[in-house]
Amino acid sequence: MTNKPSAKVLVPAGALGIPYDHAALDAGLLEIPDLIAIDGGSTDSGPFYLGTGTSKYSRSATKTDWAKLMA
User: pTM for this structure?
Assistant: First the structure.
């Protein structure tokens, strides 16, 4: 049997700015992930947001997510 490299990836939500379960994040962190990833590209979904240069999710929601994830 060959040992294949592996990595544990924790994804707290489908996109940055969407609320996520903080208890679930804490439980995931106990698993000592190799990487924490979250989609930041979904903040410009569709032509309206792209055309107006605005984010789909509020700046405060995005900053709140980052604050917890970077702590």
Answer: 0.71
